[in-house]
């Protein structure tokens, strides 16, 4: 598939895709005889996983580290698992913190709702 279709499927701009290829996050992208990129279904799945990691707050440097380990093959299986586990733990901590903030806001809103007659 071409870059336009790939961009649509992954919700990444062509500019971002080119950047990811430049820094090595997307690698081994084939090109046709005109030099245009040709993406595969596997590339789509990888890009979606990159998006998932970004959406969960993983810094690009860590995503690159994961990508580099992935490229090295099965011998990095445990390192990749540990990297993802560490990120998951940080994400869980952040979610717990956000839930505490949400509860505090809900309590304050409830206070205002209960005390409307005072205004």
From TrEMBL:
Domain HTH merR-type: residue ranges: 1-69
GO MF annotation terms: DNA binding; DNA-binding transcription factor activity
SUPFAM superfamilies in alphabetical order: Putative DNA-binding domain
Keywords assigned by UniProt, alphabetized: DNA-binding
Pfam family, one: MerR_1
CDD domains: HTH_YyaN (cd01109)
Official protein name in the record: DNA-binding transcriptional regulator, MerR family
Source species of the chain: Marinobacterium iners DSM 11526
Highest classification ranks of the organism: Bacteria, Pseudomonadati, Pseudomonadota, Gammaproteobacteria, Oceanospirillales
